[in-house]
Amino acid sequence: MTGEREVLTYELFGTAVRELARQVADDGFEPDIILSIARGGLFVAGGLGYALDVKNLHVMNVEFYTGVGETLDLPVVLPPVPSTVDLSRRRVLVADDVADTGTTLKLVHDFCAEHVAEVRSAVIYEKPRSAVKCAYVWRRTDRWIDFPWSVLPPVTRRHRGALDT
Predict the structure, then answer these.
(1) Looking at residue 91, what is its pLDDT?
(2) Radius of gyration of the chain from Cα atoms?
(3) For position 54, what pLDDT does the model report?
(4) What residue stretches are annotated with the Phosphoribosyltransferase domain (predicted)?
(5) 106-111: average pLDDT
(6) CB 121 within 8 A of CB 96
């Protein structure tokens, strides 16, 4: 990874999501469900949902990054876990902001694989080292990415409770 950063603005994010949606539509893939990987994937899934006219959006909370370049040993699925009944035999588009190591995407793909008709991934950024090669990628980079929703520190720090890790 280079010392330079990739900077995504909210305006450029809008362009990225529309272009991702165009890739999905041009490919003929019609997802029944968009499964977002929280938190960064929430923004992507919402935009894709509108652009692809998909109202059935689900969330899977996965924690892996704890800071800039800092990760847990393995990604952890946080509750609530999506019901596999809701995903059963559906075409699922997994949405996230970045496929960095691909560890989180692999966890979500493995979770879906036994239950869905088909699963594909759409990300704004994919890094060369990603273990998962996504079907739909807006840009490829090896830089650290400044996303508009996470570049500034929180306005307040929450007290960490039993469900917060």
Answers:
(1) 96
(2) 15
(3) 98
(4) 10-151
(5) 91
(6) yes
Structural domain contains residue 128 = yes
Q: Is residue 165 part of a domain?
A: no
Q: How many CB atoms are located within 10 Å of the residue 106 CB?
A: 16
Residue 90 lies in a domain: yes
pTM above 0.70, yes or no: yes
Mean per-residue pLDDT of the chain: 88
**Tens digits of residue pLDDT in 133-159:** 999 999 999 998 999 998 888 899 887
Identify the bridge partners of residue 36 per DSSP, sorted by sequence position: 59, 95
Half-sphere exposure of 117 (CA within 13 A, CB side): 10
Cα gap 139→67, rounded to integer Å: 22
CB 121 within 8 A of CB 134: yes
Domain of residue 44, residue span? 5-146
Dist. CA 70–CA 58, nearest whole Å:
27
Do 29 and 127 meet the contact criterion of CB atoms below 8 Å apart? no
Indicate the number of domains in the chain. Answer: 1
Q: Please say if the pLDDT value at position 85 is more than 80.
A: no
d(CA 47, CA 107): 23
The answer to whether residue 164 sits within a structural domain is: no
Tokens of 136: 């739909």
Q: Which two tokens stand for residue 107?
A: 């966890």
